[in-house]
Design a protein that fits this description.
The protein has 166 residues and is an all-alpha fold. The protein has two domains: 33-135, no CATH class; 136-166, no CATH class. Helices cover 65% and strands 0% of the residues. The protein is built from six helices and no strands. α4 (60-106) packs across α5 (119-133). Keywords: Coiled coil. Residues 1-33, 125-166 are annotated as: Disordered. This is Scaffolding protein. It comes from Leucobacter aridicollis. Residues 8-23 have a biased composition (Polar residues).
């Protein structure tokens, strides 16, 4: 049988031999948006009909079992989402408490400016910020805060040049 096919292929002229041009590959067809939407709607309706057809032979018990399983899955998904939300809230509260501890230990009034997710990161950030936001004057020679209150003249000069507390 394969010899017959080989002989037929050899005796029949090709498109090049007859002078005819080979047909080019067809370009993909383009459909307008309305037609595509119509086809999608029809496919969705067919899926619904198929589901109804498949379900017609099921007993009421099988249908009830399927609904119960679907409801149980939905409940389990909701419970998992709730647990995740609670865990996220607890983690955020713990981080806020840690941030407050570090801020208090480092002498920073506003804990919300500290960035980081671990004690080490928070402490490092506090150490970087502390020199920038220290409300107490520091003597550049000694690096210490003066023990006594500023004198009357020092207060006057500070107020005069905007460095005093109102």
């Amino acid at each position: 049988m394969s010899e017959e096919h080989a002989q037929q292929g050899a005796t029949q002229p090709t498109a090049e031999q007859t002078g005819q041009q080979a047909t080019p590959k067809a370009e993909p067809k383009m459909f307008d948006e309305a037609y595509v939407k119509e086809l999608r709607a029809e496919a969705a309706a067919n899926r619904v009909k198929l589901k109804e057809y498949e379900d017609r032979d099921k007993s009421a018990l099988e249908k009830a079992i399927e609904r119960a399983e679907a409801a149980e899955k939905a409940i389990a998904d909701r419970e998992a989402a709730d647990k995740q939300r609670q865990a996220d809230e607890q983690a955020a509260l713990a981080l806020d408490e840690l941030r407050a501890e570090v801020a208090q230990a480092k002498g920073i009034a506003d804990a919300s400016i500290l960035a980081g997710t671990s004690r080490e990161e928070l402490e490092a950030h506090a150490d970087k910020l502390k020199p920038l936001i220290n409300p107490h004057p520091v003597n550049p020679d000694t690096g210490k805060t003066p023990d006594k209150e500023p004198s009357e003249v020092q207060s006057f000069v500070a107020e005069l040049f905007g460095g005093g507390n109102n």
